[in-house]
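Much of our argument rests on the idea that a fold can be written as discrete symbols. The record that follows shows the chain in one-letter code together with its fold in token form.
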Amino acid sequence: MDTAEYDLIVIGAGPVGENVADRAVKGGLTAVIVESELVGGECSYWACMPSKVLLRAGAARTAAADAPGTGVTTSGGVDVAAVLRRRDEIVHEWDDSGQVGWLQSAGIDLVRGHGRITGEREVTVADADGSESVLRARHAVAVCTGSAALHPDIEGLRDAAPWTSREATAVQEVPASLVVLGGGVVACEMATAYASFGCRVSIIARSRLLGGMEDFAGDAVATALREAGVDVRLGTDAVRVHRLGSGGDGGVAVTLGDGDVIEAAEILVATGRVPRTGHIGLESVDLEPGTWLDVDDTLRVRGTEWLYAVGDVNHRALLTHQGKYQARAAGDVIAARATGAAVDDAPWGTHVATADHDAVPQVTFTDPQVASVGLTEAAAARRGLEVRVLDIDLAGIAGASTQSADYRGRARAVVDPARDVLVGATFVGPEIAELLHSATVAIVGEVPLARLWHAVPSYPTLSEVWLRWLEAYGRPS
């Protein structure tokens, strides 16, 4: 059996694993990545990148229809074939040779196959032909295997061969109808995209849409989906699913808790995520397979000195950009510990992921877009913070009127008056994603509101919402 030794072994070659290895190599270590699928991971081929392409044409058409003189109207649909061709370009036809080339240029080795931990600082890799090799780490092993779609326990669901986000973003032929289970980001984005394709969409959510965000965000998305022709069912469950047709090769029938039955050509399950830790050998180091891995702020698995869990697998923030943020911290701290350099593990230090707790930004690319960072009003209350909430109707801002005569949007600031700083912000409206980073900077930097009066927003832009927030809060005495 072949063996090789490196300073760091990374299991999983998505953006998170790539960044852990890259930072460690830049810190003077040797590193190898083990990957059983495509280098570049979920984000590159089945999630962030292709999904945004699927959403772009519908969003652009809506924006163009709002601008008199473009000749574009809200009637008619998008050119689905052209959208799918562009999707294929973005995912490089599911060919990862470009990503492999980047690994080589960065000085990171790649081993293809399924990696499992078989002992302390040891990973055994099984190749497609069944042969095995052993990798040993001088210093650390990082688990960066991500997450997979959760299949809820619904009668008949598994037998119905449901889509997950992978099938939805990799579709080759858009079905005539689609039923979506779930009310989170994936469910809302895919409902938005498929409705723009002319597909008849139903969405079934146990509570409301976008449940972890401010209530008005989910309400606005639900309203927009209904206006786009989507059948939005809230506060209900699917209790049974079965395939139609004599051989189970037809569409699906979904029975709801209230007795209603919805039929569609396909069904998409988007009810949550589970960690991809079930078959990576955690039991060999006394950890429970199939569970989220508990880490400290340096991303080291608690109770170990050598094992790290970065990205989705630690369940801190299931977002690519947060995983990459964690990866930078993890790669740097692994290199520091390996070389005996000082470790900066104080809050907001070089080697910790403090922002996972208080300043996680996220954009939901529905129509309208939802962009949020930090604490919601409800989350602040759970923290015991006495906050002030500042709500602004974006339609009253000059920048909104230049975009559309019927602009609909809302922005909420959550302020901690004890410190006079912003602790949360949510923007809902067309094309408001680019507003988010300014709020992220204000929260991370704990910029006093008194100082923000001197950050003058450009006119006429939606950034004037910052001035409206300050005016609502009141000038310092």
